[in-house]
Amino acid sequence: MKCLIIAAGKGRRLQKKGQCKPLIPLYGIALIERTIESALEAGANDFYVVTGHHHERVDAFLQRLSHRLNIPIQTIFNEKWQSTDNGISVLSAAGHLNEPFLLLMTDHVFDPGIARDLIQSAESQGGLTLAVDSHLDNPLVDLDDVTRVQAKQGNIVAIGKDLEIFNAYDTGIFLCTPSIFDALTQASLITGNTGLSNGVELLAATGQAKTFDIDGRFWIDVDDPVAFWRAENALLTRFQQQPDIIPV
Fold first, then answer.
1. Which residues contact 18 (CB under 8 A, 6 or more apart)?
2. Residue 136's CATH number
3. In-domain check, residue 75
4. What's the maximum distance between 2 C-alpha atoms anywhere in the chain?
5. pLDDT for 122
6. What is the 3-state secondary structure (H, E, C) of 15-28?
7. Structural domain tally of the chain?
8. In which domain, by residue range, is 173 found?
9. Which pLDDT band, with edges at 50, 70 and 90, does 248 fall under?
10. Taking the model in full, what pTM does it have?
């Protein structure tokens, strides 16, 4: 299973922890390495990382990681990395992926079992499946920043940060087919927007955007110092409960 990881942004809100967001250590392990190791545990074995800010540093780190873990990791430089639209980073990989692939964010820390079960259970004939969190009282979620999802009978009805009616959160863990690239291109032409959610909405309109409920399992978007602190506490708690799961 191929895995695409988005790691191009500047991460302005987390710069107090480090100038290069993918390389910021969380309990001594860089965020990008945590994402890759979680994907490995889930069943991915071929990695593509879209870079931008501090491309050279991230690329050098990933080359060393590739050698150390004995896995292929290819970086793809997004020349438009300064855009806040993450769909542009996804589109940067269009020429590299022609089969179903796992799509992850470098700053999301999660239980690898979520991605593993997503791969095993999701349909891959077309479109995409998004792992969603239907526990709306999840204390690790930043309600002011999280992408919201309105889902019905396993299908995405609407997605966006400003949804007023929603019943789940976007965890940033996707199983995609190459149709996401066409959807992002079309969304850009139709609306002028190049966010990942815009492509998902276009697929949802034709019933090609499914949901997979994570059933309360652990995930967190490490996007600012408060989220970083929450992630540290959550990982420490998980390690104390199950020391074989999370290395710290």
1. 24, 25
2. 3.90.550.10
3. yes
4. 50
5. 67
6. CCCCCCHHHCEECC
7. 1
8. 2-217
9. very low
10. 0.94
